[in-house]
Amino acid sequence: MSNPSAVIFGMAGLRLSEAERKLFQSSNPAGFILFQRNCDTPEQVAALTRELRDCIGRPDAPILIDQEGGRVQRLKPPHWRQAPPAGVFAALYETDPEAAMEGAYLNARLIAEELAELGINVDCAPVLDLLRPETHGIIGDRAYGSGLEPIAALGLSVANGLMAGGVLPVIKHIPGHGRATVDSHLELPIVDTPRAELEQSDFGAFAALSEAPFGMTAHVVYSAIDPAHPATISRVMIEEIIRKTIGFSGCLMSDDIGMKALGGDFASRTTACLDAGCDLILHCSGDLAEMEAVAGVIRPLDGMAARRFARAMRGLPEKTPFDRAQVLARLDSLIAA
């Protein structure tokens, strides 16, 4: 079988349309990502993940979701638990770091259990962006703190909790979205902080988890390093900062290329991401015409990108024993304290 193509696609609804099925079969994406529009009941989501993998004939294909807790949670009550946001554990860390790390781990372990039951094997978490006074609200309580120590400790706890439940983490938004004062979904953030300061702060949070299986880029311009391009489409940022300074060795995906921080049509966005050094393109909207444009220029996963992708997927661990009621009770007691 030929290598999958270097793209992760979303889809429009609760089931695959015939047009989507044909596109996915012909383009052979590396995997898929689900959003709230794709999730109704546990039975429906489990059926959809099976349908997606059957469509491309790869039973181990990654299926992603953003299930951080708090505001960013695609699976919602009443069928799924409302998980606390990262900010809860950041606040707890200030008074009891051990309790905060245990709580972050247990919360992630509960999330992983819910995802694995549905056939979802990759969670786009943890967020490793530093919370600063100027940080745009799009990050806000999604951050695990304002210092390197809590973010590294809590981020690692989340990653370990997910993997203990058989789900791979995606660290984001590398090399850091915390200094952005605008929402990259809507416009292009520009950060003017000197490189030396970035290396001692924002970049360091990601260095602590540099061996994570997957990472997601930030659509942010760091003017001291590359004033012309956001990190997602900057070869300098990816090669010099993400791969060397931070030392990230995992499979690197773009943030959603449909976000307004990026310019140009979808074919040019796709090519720019790949040329800069992204291993995977993330396209989330489920818009068929956009996906067809991406599919028209997408490349097979090969070389180092293919090796990093294969290594990430090989890292999917077996689930550890788990008592949901006991874990929930322990998590509630930690947060209440």
Describe this structure in a few short sentences.
This protein has 337 residues and is α/β, with parallel strands linked by helices. The chain has helices at 18-27, 42-56, 86-95, 97-118, 148-164, 195-200, 202-207, 235-245, 266-276, 288-297, 303-314, 324-336, and strands at 5-9, 29-34, 63-65, 67-69, 72-73, 122-123, 168-174, 190-191, 214-217, 221-222, 251-256, 280-283. The chain has a single domain (5-336), classed as TIM Barrel, CATH 3.20.20.
CATH class category name: Alpha Beta
Integer average pLDDT:
96
Q: Kindly, what is the distance between the CA atoms of the first and last residues, rounded to a whole number of angstroms?
A: 54 Å
- Structural class comes to alpha/beta
Topology summary:
Blueprint: E1 5-9, H1 18-27, E2 29-34, H2 42-56, E3 63-65, E4 67-69, E5 72-73, H3 86-95, H4 97-118, E6 122-123, H5 148-164, E7 168-174, E8 190-191, H6 195-200, H7 202-207, E9 214-217, E10 221-222, H8 235-245, E11 251-256, H9 266-276, E12 280-283, H10 288-297, H11 303-314, H12 324-336
Parallel strand pairs: 1-2, 1-12, 2-3, 3-6, 6-7, 7-9, 8-10, 9-11, 11-12
Antiparallel strand pairs: 4-5
Task: Describe the fold and architecture.
An 8-stranded parallel barrel has the order 1-2-3-6-7-9-11-12, surrounded by 6 helices. Strands 4-5 form a two-stranded antiparallel sheet. Helices cover 42% and strands 14% of the residues. The termini are far apart. It is α/β, with parallel strands linked by helices and 337 residues long. The chain has one domain: Alpha-Beta Barrel (TIM Barrel), CATH 3.20.20.300. It has helices at 18-27, 42-56, 86-95, 97-118, 148-164, 195-200, 202-207, 235-245, 266-276, 288-297, 303-314, 324-336, and strands at 5-9, 29-34, 63-65, 67-69, 72-73, 122-123, 168-174, 190-191, 214-217, 221-222, 251-256, 280-283.
